[in-house]
Amino acid sequence: MKTKHDSLRNTLTELFGTGDFTCQPVSGGDINRSFKLQVNGHNLFMKANKVENLAFFSAETAGLSAIRSTRTIRVPETVAVGRDNQYGAFLFLEWCQGSQNKDFYENFGHSLAAMHKADTSGTMKGFGFPEDNFIGAGEQDNTPEDSWAVFFRDHRLRPQIEKAGSWFDNSDRKRINRILDHMEDYLPEPDFPSLLHGDLWGGNYITGNDGEAWLIDPAVYIGHFEADLAMTELFGGFPQRFYGAYNEINPIDPNYRNRRNLYNLYHLLNHLNLFGGGYLSSVKNVLGRY
Predict the structure, then answer these.
(1) Distances (CA, A) of 251 to 147, 153, 178, 267
(2) What kind of architecture, by CATH, is found in domain 8-94?
(3) Which of 132, 169, 199, 217 is catalytic?
(4) pLDDT digit string, tens, across residues 250-264
């Protein structure tokens, strides 16, 4: 895949033999504009953003590639990424529009568990990722660490806490310091590192063209698989048969329940920093539990 194009029409001409296309806005999240493109009998999903935000799409491409390389769970094919005077930065993805198979959530659980058990040694040693990326519109620091607890403390919670500092009173800060000072007591080192989707809520999987769950909008890094599971439960959770199937392939420690809210504190802090005080009570509730 050519990863840097300077014209949308030239890109389409290179790919499909013509730069003529129709463009229809579709739903696709809060950060980017989303479109269905039809060109020379082909359908594409296009994301667009400001030219200066091309890094969003470069990071997404790397994340999709990392997931695809595990050969465990599908992601849409990345067709091209570039920038255009009219549309700004753009990303072309395979168009997906399927109907769920009967065993959709069981297969989803099995596939995600397999992804979490895939060997990560070819990507890097330890926890993190070879490059930084984004969690929503926020920057995500993936500086490698040998310890999972250290990585989660210094490159997940601490940056978000520093950004959110003006929201906290003295009692909040005491709770925060206690959590940060005792992170090794709260988070055990995993038996093996896992490639994580990183932002796995209900809006970040789709039904693929084969009727199975496909992952989209990754914020990948290597960490403890429990962090992905925690995110699936933050906004209502997935059907129980998903978790039962996951557990068949990659058993979930019963004590995970004691850590789930701490993992999700990262996402709640990120939402507080991106969207404002509507998430403050949820953040304080988690702080009070530790």
Answers:
(1) 22, 25, 30, 24
(2) 2-Layer Sandwich (3.30)
(3) 199
(4) 999 999 999 999 999
In the chain, which segments carry CATH 3.30.200.20? 8-94
pLDDT tens column, 146-174:
999 999 999 999 999 999 999 999 999 99
**Angle, vertex CA 206, rays to CA 200 and CA 211, nearest 5:** 130
Say if residue 108 is exposed, middle or buried (CB neighbours under 10 Å; 0-12, 13-18, 19+): buried
Which of the four pLDDT bands, split at 50, 70 and 90, describes residue 120?
very high
Domain with CATH 3.90.1200.10 in the chain: 104-289
Q: Are 117 and 228 in contact (CB under 8 A)?
A: no
Domain 104-289, CATH number (from 3.90.1150.10, 3.90.1200.10, 3.40.50.2300, 3.40.630.30): 3.90.1200.10
Distance CA 249, CA 117 (A): 9
Verify whether residue 181 is a known catalytic residue: no
